Amino acid sequence: AQSVAQPEDQVNVAEGNPLTVKCTYSVSGNPYLFWYVQYPNRGLQFLLKYITGDNLVKGSYGFEAEFNKSQTSFHLKKPSALVSDSALYFCAVRGDSNYQLIWGAGTKLIIKP
Amino acid sequence: NAGVTQTPKFQVLKTGQSMTLQCAQDMNHNSMYWYRQDPGMGLRLIYYSASEGTTDKGEVPNGYNVSRLNKREFSLRLESAAPSQTSVYFCASSEGGFVVYEQYFGPGTRLTVT
């Protein structure tokens, strides 16, 4: 069965420093991978996705993610963190059905001024 | 353009009571979804509707029913609420049913069952 893991419950970064939020996956076949962000008391918002093609995917708000097939990872990155990036970040992978996503437990990102 | 709207925002039920969560989208999307979000866990799909007139079970459908009323509206019903259904419920929609399509989420309904 398909699965996704976010190994860190929380990541703390100083404003202006680069940030990485980790995601690893286990799938049969080609992975479809996604990152979403949830701000407090809001629904989730799409950030970026990897379906095929270039391993470095660029998304919204200056975020990017690198697909690494050998390490089965899809880490989210940003070169310079902003306080406003503080939120809950979810990685997701296509499930057994093409209509379903399997979600990670989420990583809380805290950016300190 | 409101996107995806959900009502109510908060609800407290007693065990055994029933209720319907409402969801509507104004983006002319074909597909709609109901998820639940529990602390320390990712979202889990309850039911989805790939297109108007169709509904399918997701990962955790037991205790729930859904109705795709029309292209805009997708409701979730709890027939006999249980404490295990205490959760935050999110409705989402997407242009197509295939996962490659970006999903747009509503603000959520926080449900407590006592």
Keywords:
heterodimer, A: 113 residues, mainly beta, four-stranded antiparallel beta sheet, B: 114 residues, seven-stranded mixed beta sheet, globular
Q: State the end-to-end distance of chain A.
A: 41 Å
- Give the total of beta strands of chain B: 11
Helical proportion of chain A, percent range:
under 10%
As an assembly, this protein is: heterodimer
Radius of gyration of chain B: 13 Å
Helix-strand sequence of chain A: EEEEEEEEEEEE
| Average pLDDT taken over every residue of chain A | 94
Question: Which two chains form the greatest contact, residue counts included?
Answer: A-B, 25 and 26 residues
Low-confidence stretches of chain A: none
Largest sheet of chain B: 7 strands, mixed
Structural class per helix/strand content of chain B?
Answer: mainly beta
Mean pLDDT, all residues of chain B: 94
List SSEs of chain B in N-to-C order: EEEEEEEEEEE
Helix/strand-derived class of chain A? mainly beta
Percentage beta strand of chain A: over 45%
DSSP helix count of chain B?
0
Form type of chain B: globular
Distance between the termini of chain B: 36 Å
Structure characterization notes:
The complex is a heterodimer of chains A (113) and B (114). By secondary structure, chain A is mainly β. Helix content of chain A is 0%, strand content 51%. Chain A has no helices and 12 strands. Chain A has strands at 3-5, 10-14, 19-21, 24-26, 33-38, 44-50, 56-58, 64-68, 73-78, 87-94, 101-103, 107-112. In chain A, strands 2, 5, 6, 10, 11 and 12 form a 6-stranded mixed beta sheet that branches. In chain A, strands 3-9-8-7 form a 4-stranded antiparallel beta sheet, with no helix packed on it. In chain A, β7 (56-58) and β8 (64-68) form a beta hairpin. Chain B has 114 residues and is an all-beta fold. Chain B is built from no helices and 11 strands. Chain B has strands at 4-7, 10-13, 19-25, 31-37, 43-49, 56-57, 64-68, 74-78, 87-94, 104-105, 109-113. Chain A binds chain B through residues 4, 32, 34, 36, 41-46, 49, 51, 90, 92, 94-95, 98-106, and chain B through 4, 31, 40-45, 48, 50, 56, 58-59, 90, 92, 97-100, 102-108.
